[in-house]
Amino acid sequence: MKKVFGFLFAIAFVFTLNHNEAKAAPAPPLTDLQIIGVTSDGANYEWEYISFDQTSASYPMSGETGYIAVYVEGTELYGWFRIYNKGQDITNIAKEIIDMREPVTDSSGMVIGWIKYYEIPLDKVESGQFTVSARNYYPPNNTFYDNLYINVE
Predict the structure, then answer these.
(1) Could you report the per-residue pLDDT of 52-66, keeping only the tens digit for each?
(2) How many other CB atoms are there within 10 angstroms of residue 98's CB atom?
(3) How far apart are CA 150 and CA 123, in angstroms?
(4) Could you give the CA distance from residue 118 to residue 48 in angstroms, rounded to a whole number?
(5) Cα angle: 88, vertex 28, 149; to 5 degrees
(6) Which option is the CATH number for 32-150: 1.10.3720.10, 3.40.50.300, 2.40.30.260, 2.60.40.2870?
(7) Which tens digits make up the pLDDT trace of 87-130?
(8) Does the pLDDT value for residue 13 go beyond 50?
(9) Hey, which residues does 149 pair with through a beta bridge?
């Protein structure tokens, strides 16, 4: 336990020595939002990768739980990310799997976005258009959308 406190104290001490040199880059504006993958437990978790201009998933979601991977480049306004199924807001039943969230970095290693994974109970949705939307953190807070038709069995 003493080692842990000693380590934390050393980090705090170094931080206070260098606090004038530490710089943080501003959060980048939201520039892209895309559904990039879908799978389900009925498909043995085999991901279908969705291309930029693809309008429908080739394989249905089946079983009990579906999964959607969403690419978010930039900074979204907190609380404004939404998932819809056939126009109905299903954000409250779509749970983000935080452990699977992947950072997206630029060539210098700066985080510029995330790949986020959501699980959706298939007994609560129907075949049809799935839409993800997010608002830009920065004014004028434009909203970005992506749509994908998915068959649900």
Answers:
(1) 999 999 999 999 999
(2) 8
(3) 14
(4) 15
(5) 25
(6) 2.60.40.2870
(7) 999 999 999 999 999 999 999 989 999 999 999 999 999 999 99
(8) no
(9) 56, 129
Phi and psi based region of residue 45 (left: phi greater than 0; alpha: psi -120 to 50; beta: remaining): left
Q: DSSP for the chain, please give it.
A: -HHHHHHHHHHHHHHHHHTTT---PPPPBP-EEEEEEEEEGGGTTPPEEPPTT--B-SS-B-SSEEEEEEEEESBBPTT--EEEETTEE-TTT-EE-GGG-EEEE-TTS-EEEEEEEEEEEGGG--SEEEEEEEEBSSTT--EEEEEEEE-B-
CB 73, CB 32: distance < 8 Å = yes
**What is the C-alpha to C-alpha distance for residues 133 and 90, in angstroms, rounded to an integer?**
12
Q: What radius of gyration, in Å, describes the C-alpha atoms of the chain?
A: 19
- In the block, which residue shows the tokens 């039943």? 93
Q: What is the pLDDT of residue 60?
A: 97
pLDDT at position 31, please? Answer: 96
Q: By the 8 A CB rule, do 41 and 19 touch?
A: no
